[in-house]
Amino acid sequence: MFNEENPVYAHEELLTRIGGLLAKARASGVPVIYVQHNEGAGEELETGSPAWEIHAAIAPEEGEPRIQKHKPDSFEDTDLQSELAARGIGKLVIAGLQTDMCVNATATRAAELGYAITVAGDAHSTWAQGGRSAAEIIEAHNARFSSFARIQNSTAISFE
To answer: Looking at the whole model, is its pTM more than 0.90?
Structure first.
């Protein structure tokens, strides 16, 4: 998460915001489902490597499922949709990494599948690339997400 070559924008704030969302969801009895990206040997998110691990500040609690994926879309070739259906979940709050890859692909697919989506607009991140700052990328994607999802800051999201 904290690669020196590609530092995650505002990573400390991101961890705090995601941690706050997790605490609110758990306190309200809302299921928390993690999605973890896996890559092959020698790649940045090589399965089992330190970079692959979920940060301790936002780690799953006992019984919270981890969906393992190999593509940006968390629904593609995973059991995420069956996990959501088994729990009767029709509303999703999406947060995490990487704004322009996994968050984008997953939010888009969730909308296509008919889920009611809230994107935590201040609880997803990326890094500067392609001549654009991370903040610019996040802002552009929040604008895009607003065409099919509710965008809210993490402190405004309620699970009740």
So the answer is: yes
CATH number, position 32:
3.40.50.850
15-60 pLDDT per residue, tens: 999 999 999 999 999 999 999 999 999 999 999 999 999 999 999 9
* Residue 157 falls inside a structural domain: no
Q: Which of 80, 93, 97, 102 is catalytic?
A: 102
CA dist 94 and 44 (Å) reads 23
Residue at 30 is within a domain: yes
d(CA 118, CA 5): 31
Task: Label residue 80 exposed, middle or buried (CB < 10 Å: 0-12, 13-18, 19+).
Answer: buried
- In a domain, residue 84? The reply is yes
* Whether 107 is catalytic: no
